[in-house]
Amino acid sequence: MTDVIERNVHDRLSRVIDPELGKSITDLGMIVGIEAVPRDVIDSGRSIVDVTVKVELTVEGCPLTQTIIDKINEAVTSYPAAKLVPHIDVASMSRSKLTGLVNDLKAERRQNPFTKPGTKTRIFAIASGKGGVGKSSVTANLAATFAALGYDTAAIDADIYGFSLPTLFGAHGHPTNLDGMLMPVTAWGVKLISIGMFAGADRAILWRGPRLQRSLEQFLSDVWWGEPDVLLLDLAPGTGDMAISVAQALPNAELVVVTTPQPSASDVAVRAGLVALQVPMKVRGVIENMSYYEHDGERLRIFGEGGGRRVSEQLTKDLGHEVPLLGTLPLEPEVRIDGEAGRPVVLNEDGTLADSPLAAEFKGIAERLMR
């Protein structure tokens, strides 16, 4: 009986997925032993069996250790034919075993994973013509919306000079280094990477040209992303080096332009969209942020109105294909308050999508982007 239980438990553990690597813990070699020892006791007609599972995690002090242990416990205790009592023995992989695992993963990937034929990932580069239009908060809340809707979601803070995604997601940890391969930090269901997560990021950064492009290449190829459904990139304002680097590294990316209603912002936003005339990148649509402020049932147009529509119509005309206005977002203090506290405003405290007009607007934008 014990042999059968051990085989069945191993089969059940093969369906436990490592949350960082996106692969089965058995395929990754994390399960190094399973031992079943029956007790001389029957409970409600079922045998009671102690099951010791020996686990080797990739690194000591792995931040997701408890998550993996909980999933193993669930797989063992839900065994239907007997009452299994789990005992989890946790250790870390040897240096040589970890090196072999990382080499296998790198060999499997070999290159930027988002340009491989047949990739399922939809890539949206969030751009703006100028700063101060809320591009990063739009990126953060859109990413959080995708994750809450069940999409495997990743985000790259490609604004090297003005990174803000770690703050907006409350992601204060550092990427786990697996023998030279980085694991993105996960917050609110979104896998994140940002220059702000590395030591010395608080110093002034004056990168240009090749070095700036190399930073993006490293974010794409030196980080283990798995195969997310959606990847969002928060670009620096304007039409400079990073926008060109994204187009070169991710020719399948789709540009989403963020503007505010006033002409001084929307006129510049058009130029951000027209970068598509110079690089192989499709403009997917326009988002108008801070469209109005709701006060006593009245919508106050603090920054004027019509900017998103003007950008949409001008880009449609200049690019020769429809560039729709994907959504209009209100000006709400909670966007700043919750963002500075480290939680995207579209989410409840348990990570579910909030029941609010703003969350509904982001949900609509996400659904339109995935059509």
TrEMBL record:
Q: Where does ATP bind?
A: 129-136
- Where does the record place the MIP18 family-like domain? 7-81
Output the Gene Ontology terms for molecular function.
4 iron, 4 sulfur cluster binding; ATP binding; ATP hydrolysis activity; ATP-dependent FeS chaperone activity; metal ion binding
Asked if ATP-binding is a keyword of the record, the answer is: yes
List the InterPro entries hit by this protein, alphabetically: FSCA_dom_sf, MIP18-like, Mrp/NBP35_ATP-bd, NUBPL-like, P-loop_NTPase, YlxH/NBP35
Q: Which UniProt keywords apply?
A: ATP-binding, Hydrolase, Iron, Iron-sulfur, Metal-binding, Nucleotide-binding
One GO biological process term? iron-sulfur cluster assembly
Q: Name one Pfam family in it.
A: FeS_assembly_P
Q: Taxonomically, which superkingdom? A: Bacteria
Give the record's subunit note: Homodimer.
Protein family per UniProt: Belongs to the Mrp/NBP35 ATP-binding proteins family.
Question: Per its database record, what is this protein's job?
Answer: Binds and transfers iron-sulfur (Fe-S) clusters to target apoproteins. Can hydrolyze ATP.
Name recorded for this polypeptide: Iron-sulfur cluster carrier protein
